[in-house]
Design goal:
It is found in: Membrane. Keywords: Cell adhesion, Glycoprotein, Membrane, Signal. This protein is an all-alpha fold and about 1100 residues long. It is built from 66 helices and no strands. α8 runs parallel beside α9, α18 packs antiparallel against α19 and α55 crosses α57.
Length: about 1100
């Protein structure tokens, strides 16, 4: 663990460009005390520490007294304090960085070591304590959970200084570790200030206190006083809601009014909604009226995100509150922002306040359109100065494409900050419009060098074909661009070249990886591991295959006889690709290192269907239990599983101690993915553990909600209480996918709450409820659950006020759309009289009009992005294209790159004849902005034909080209699909796979199907599978599992010295320091 821990720090030194110091520095010094230490330090210490660091038992099983004594000897016998002082005062940044990289984890281990003789931080004098804490502080952000432990009791002044050091890493450590700090701080405060403990009783209490009773704190203890709040700092955001009740009202009010609350929590990360609402509730009690709290808006800090019910505010207070709400994502806060902005927009004397807010507020696209329209004064396409552009950057999403085409390129390029700020808010079409303007004024090389990533990602492969890649290695590229540029770089398989162009990693194909010299393979995987933001699964899988082949060529039984040092050299990212049989063969002696790696690895790179997942979990459990029952596991043990805990099955969890089981289930609620076949059993286990779902208290639902939300039956069974609605509303933004069951429950609870007094706390039938403006606003996308009768009951004025909200959902049925579109004509007049502003607000409701009416609607090219995903039929898109073409004076021949990007999904509305008339050069540059459109097969086939005309036959297409074409690849016929080079298949987008007709998909060979990759294989439809032979289906299964296809290699492998640079550097420091 020490080596792994130090390696994080060493990499930071390398990232800063520091070269490793000469090793003689470690041993040469003018400090006489250090030189004396070299002569006098006991030699057995080296053996003891190496034994500890490289211990053959799991670290959690090392005898506590052994490690404590080693830490004590390290501090007392090696004069490490003098080395730390020397490091602190060093003028050589590089040397000091590497020295601290090694010293930081050692210092932390010394600080937190303890034994029965109280050899812990309390035994240190204050100078020694400060010295060690200074040395340890840079390691705190990289502490694994297993090392994030604190002595049970610490002297007050040392506790203050330690938690102050932990403030600076609050935002960089996992949620579980932040909770540990908050819990530990709470325990230290009660013990040091109130001479009582909040720790739960245990059987060992009597023995520890020699028969003396333990003084337990009363539940009513008001421990969270002014000093405690100040001491905890950002960790106030990690307390439980119940802890806030322990804050005396007068002290909490004083803390809030002093502005310490905002300044303290602004450094913290986002707190849970239940905690945020609890803080706000307590603070509101400091004021007699809600209006009084409004006068202290600037002190709210992150609590502004939980202030759902704001009183009427003056324009000045509204403009103060808006910037505070900008980082909030709660649906109710979005409604509040909308209300505040609309209020300020309604008057000429207050609208200027919105412009003055600049970058401090983010506006919705509709708000941005309205504000830009007001600013342009009715001249939609007038020239605007660069100063005006800077003023409008927060509402850049509303800038018309025609304005962007008229900007002064030199002004834009010479102000990179403004260019980046506005480009982040642009749609694809806006980006293409700006690029179109910039390319008219500067060279391609200058453009690629100066534009920000958000614009650069829209540059087509056609534009990049003449690019000079020599100066582009430090830029970020999308996948197709990286694939294209990687092939332009000579000798990318050589390590010095690879490092120079590290941002092109996502473009490094298997062919390039297979060219890497065998002796450089390990170093290559290190480079990959340190730059995961540029990687994809294909490159990781190919690199893992290459690495394992090289290692097993060195020694046939490499993984059966692997040492800890050898395992440590394999980056965790690639270790998880080890085939199941190799995982099983790993010797028990490597358990400590194996657990360290599993604790920190990112499992998202491993396919969900990979058979190595359960094997990795079983190996980790075997290491932790040493062959004993799972009931012997502790909470600290399970925390060492890292993301592997997400693979635990109900049958495994049932064998654990009840307290460990509950802690593990709550940790699993934070998982990004739970295997689908585990979910129903997990829900059953939750019921067995916590009781009937319908009787769950609020705290239990909050703790387990992400798990519970995965099962529709569980969601339906949960209590129909007002707080249930709050939990769903609070947590929906953080869920990757929200099920129909969750949305429907939220709808029922919301409608019920509006018609039933809260005190009844039950849900009535909602079928007779008339939709009100307040309910419609709150429901958002949930408005799709209204019955036809209820939609028809919406009053005209309510519809007028909420049409924009009603027009946002994409899931309406045809019958619902018919009712809503009829309601629209009743409210705004006949179709022929509807204005551009009205149809823009109506959004997806426009789908309810007849094909003939769609041709009459006044849709601007600027407004199409918001409605492209409404679920248009092919005939509707045909009608929409006709209407758009008429209103914007367009023909197929006139479509340029910006117009194609603006049409996007509506390109599917062009006829085959019109597609053949498209400008080929414009199509080449627009294709990357059209790769997500979903046309019928007949239209996709026509677009494919145009692509063949532009780029050549499919059998010549490269990895970059098939990735850029995206969903247009679904237009290939069976013969063309079968002609694709196997190497390109994994670069087909996963959104494309379900669009390929089953009979065409079946033309792919077994080799091609296996080459699709895991993400693509996971998207194969049932219909496509049914069209395959048994052997083809087996190939799909292998692809989904991410199987490593063996590659033959030649020549004896010789791992370069550079490949083990981290380990050598660590051992140099280890030996150097310990021999002092």
């Amino acid at each position: 663990m020490l080596c792994l821990f130090s390696s994080f720090q060493i990499r930071r030194c390398q990232d800063k460009g520091y070269q490793p110091p000469k090793t003689h520095f470690v041993f040469n010094t003018s400090n006489s005390s250090l030189m004396d230490a070299i002569d006098n330090s006991p030699k057995f210490l080296l053996t003891a520490l190496l034994s500890s660091v490289m211990n053959r038992d799991p670290l959690s099983r090392i005898p506590k007294t052994s490690t404590d004594k080693i830490m004590e000897r390290m501090w007392n016998c090696t004069h490490l304090r003098d080395m730390i002082v020397l490091m602190k005062n060093s003028s050589e940044n590089a040397t000091a960085c590497y020295m601290q990289a090694f010293m930081a984890p050692i210092s932390w281990m010394i600080l937190t070591a303890q034994d029965k003789n109280n050899t812990d931080m309390n035994a240190l004098n204050m100078d020694d304590f400060d010295t060690l804490l200074w040395s340890a502080k840079d390691a705190l952000r990289d502490l694994p959970s297993s090392a994030f432990k604190f002595p049970p009791k610490v002297e007050l002044e040392k506790m203050k200084r330690l938690i102050s050091a932990l403030w600076r890493v609050h935002a960089n450590i996992p949620k579980q570790n932040r909770a540990r700090v908050a819990k530990w701080a709470k325990e230290q405060i009660t013990e040091n200030y109130f001479n009582c403990t909040m720790k739960p009783p245990s059987g060992s209490d009597t023995e520890k206190n020699k028969g003396k009773p333990v003084n337990r704190c009363k539940p009513s203890l008001q421990w969270l006083n002014m000093e405690a709040m100040t001491m905890m700092g950002p960790y106030l955001s990690d307390l439980s809601p119940r802890d806030i009740d322990s804050a005396p009202k007068e002290k909490l009010c004083e803390f809030f009014l002093s502005a310490k609350f905002n300044s303290t929590l602004s450094r913290g990360t986002r707190m849970s909604p239940s905690l945020g609402k609890k803080w706000l509730q307590k603070i509101q009690q400091c004021f007699n009226k809600k209006e009084q709290l409004a006068e202290h808006i600037e002190k709210l800090g992150p609590l502004a995100c939980f202030w759902y019910k704001v009183p009427d505010l003056t324009p000045e207070l509204s403009s103060k509150l808006l910037p505070e709400l900008d980082g909030c994502d709660h649906p109710r806060i979005k409604q509040l922002k909308k209300k505040l902005i609309e209020t300020l927009m309604s008057k000429d004397n207050t609208i200027q306040m919105l412009y003055n807010l600049g970058r401090n507020v983010t506006f919705s696209k509709d708000q941005a359109f309205a504000l830009i329209k007001r600013k342009l004064g009715g001249q939609k396409c007038r020239n605007i100065s660069h100063e005006e552009l800077k003023e409008l950057q927060s509402m850049a999403a509303g800038l018309p494409q025609c304005v962007l085409k008229r900007l002064k390129a030199a002004d834009v390029l010479n102000d990179p900050e403004t260019m980046e700020n506005i480009a982040k808010k642009f749609s694809k079409a806006q980006k293409m419009a700006m690029l179109q303007r910039l390319t008219e004024s500067v060279t391609a090389s200058e453009l690629m060098e100066k534009v920000p990533e958000s614009l650069r990602e829209r540059l087509s492969l056609n534009f990049l074909k003449n690019a000079d890649v020599s100066s582009l290695g430090n830029k970020t590229w999308n996948k197709q661009q990286a694939l294209f540029l990687a092939k332009k770089v000579k000798d990318l398989h050589k390590l010095p070249v690879l490092r120079k162009y590290i941002s092109l990693l996502r473009g490094v194909s298997c062919a390039i990886i297979d060219k890497v010299a065998e002796g450089d393979t390990l170093t290559m995987t290190e480079e990959f591991s340190e730059n995961q933001q540029f990687l994809d699964k294909v490159a990781v899988k190919c690199a893992a295959r290459r690495l394992f082949a090289v290692l097993e060529k060195e020694r046939e039984d490499y993984f059966q006889t692997i040492t800890e040092e050898e395992l440590d050299m394999i980056p965790s990212l690639f270790l998880i690709y080890l085939p199941p049989s190799r995982v099983k063969d790993l010797p028990d002696s490597v358990c400590p290192t194996f657990l360290d790696k599993m604790e920190e690895v990112n499992m998202t790179f491993l396919p969900r269907a990979a058979p190595s997942r359960p094997k990795l979990l079983q190996k980790a459990l075997d290491c932790l239990t040493e062959g004993e029952a799972l009931s012997t596991l502790t909470v600290d043990d399970t925390s060492r599983l890292g993301e592997l805990s997400c693979e635990l099955s109900a049958s495994q969890l049932r064998l654990m101690d009840p307290d460990v089981l509950k802690a593990t289930l709550e940790d699993m609620a934070l998982c990004r993915y739970i295997p689908a076949d585990h979910r129903s059993d997990l829900i059953q286990l939750i019921e067995e553990t916590y009781g009937n779902l319908s009787e769950f208290p609020q705290e239990t639902v909050e703790a387990l909600w992400p798990l519970l939300s995965l099962d529709d039956s569980a969601v339906s069974a949960l209590p129909n209480q007002p707080w249930m609605k709050d939990i769903i509303d609070d947590m929906r933004p953080s869920l990757n996918n929200v099920s129909e069951a969750v949305n429907e429950k939220f709808f029922n609870l919301t409608v019920s709450e509006s018609t039933t007094a809260r005190k009844r706390r039950t849900v009535r039938s909602v079928s007779s409820t008339t939709p009100t403006a307040a309910i419609i606003e709150e429901l958002g996308d949930g408005n799709v659950y209204w019955t036809l009768g209820q939609l028809n009951m919406i009053p005209i004025e309510v519809f007028r006020a909420t049409v924009q909200v009603l027009g946002t959902p994409t899931g309406y049925s045809v019958e619902q759309l018919s009712v809503l579109s009829k309601k629209a004509t009743e409210t705004f007049g006949s179709v022929s009289t509807l204005t551009e502003e009205v149809v823009q607000k109506m959004g997806c409701i426009n789908r309810g009009f007849s094909d003939g009416d769609l041709e009459k609607l006044p849709f601007s090219l600027d407004n199409l992005d918001a409605i492209k995903s409404c679920g248009w039929t092919e005939q509707q898109m045909r009608s929409m294209w006709k209407g758009i073409a008429t209103y914007n004076n367009l023909t197929a021949q006139k479509l340029g790159v910006t117009e194609m990007a603006a049409l996007n999904q509506f390109m599917c509305g062009l006829s085959p004849n019109e597609i053949s008339q498209l400008n080929k050069e414009a199509f080449k540059d627009a294709v990357g902005s059209l790769n997500d459109i979903r046309c019928s097969y007949n239209i996709a086939k026509q677009l494919k034909s145009l692509a063949v005309t532009a780029f050549g036959e499919p059998n010549t297409w490269t990895e970059a080209k098939v990735n850029e074409l995206g969903n247009m690849m679904a237009g290939l016929d069976a013969t063309e699909l079968a002609s694709l080079n196997t190497a390109v298949l994994s670069y087909i987008r996963d959104t494309t796979i379900p669009l390929i007709p089953a009979e065409n998909f079946a033309a792919l060979t077994e080799v091609q199907l296996e080459a699709l990759g895991s993400d693509n294989a996971a998207k194969v439809t049932t219909e496509q599978l049914n069209a395959l032979s048994a052997k083809q289906r087996a190939a799909i299964e292998r692809a989904a599992a991410g199987s490593l296809v063996a590659k033959t290699t030649s020549g004896a492998p010789s791992l370069s010295a550079e490949g083990i640079s981290f380990m050598k550097l660590l051992l140099v420091f280890l030996l150097g320091f310990l021999l002092l």
